[in-house]
Design goal:
mainly beta, Thrombin, subunit H, 2 domains, 6-stranded antiparallel barrel, 4 helices, globular
Length: 267
Amino acid sequence: MNMYSGLIVLLSLAVPCLLVPLPKEHSRGIAIVNPGHTDIRTHSYTVAILTGMDLLGGGVLVKQNWVLTAASVVHGFKKEDIVVRVGSNSGYYGGHLRNVSRVIEYPDYSTNQSYNLALLKLDRPVFYRVAAHISYLARVPFQDDRSYGNLTGYGQETYDVTEYTNGPQLQIIGMELYSSSYCNHNFWSMSVPNIQFCADANNSGPCFGDVGDPLVKCVRPSQCELLGIYTGVNICQYDTPSTYMDIGQFYGWIQENIASKRKWSRT
């Protein structure tokens, strides 16, 4: 990790969910590349989704008993074979495990994989103290070109799996965000559907194990808005922007499925 990445870590530990500036250079690999290792206490909305000891991808707590992720992370798996780890800096150890009682893929995903979203209902709620930074959901489509956000997840630190020796560790990277129209106009290789947007991090980006990771924008400490979910497009390609589901366009569907009159437990 270079000095700039170290600064990212110190800042993210000092202030909950602090918006991290875009890195100016990368030091190694192409993963949550040029990552700063961060602490789950400041990004406790981030979860790891596994089957056995295999990391399927990431996700985000949108309610005490609901996780939002990419449909491609869980598609084809029985709910009994999926577990969610919350409250840990490691995707493999620590924190709390929750089984999944229900999987809801976005209805159009089976015929159009651009609609890459799924909700996982947990068998038990996550204690409030563990999920202290659950993100607000964006309510309107993304259109704030050249704004900044944070991507957090447990994916590989390098394209080379032989260097993936410490297992999945929570990492953070600052990214510059662009609407789908901006992406398609300014990046010749991009063809981003209007239900998604793209993000770039100066020769950095998400890699294997990062599909489903949350991208948030923080307007002030502890007030972080969930803007996107990583789709897996351009995975491990550090010279091309990665794409994200535009959560503001799916706010109604998410709320309809997770709505509950039950109050949150603070025990």
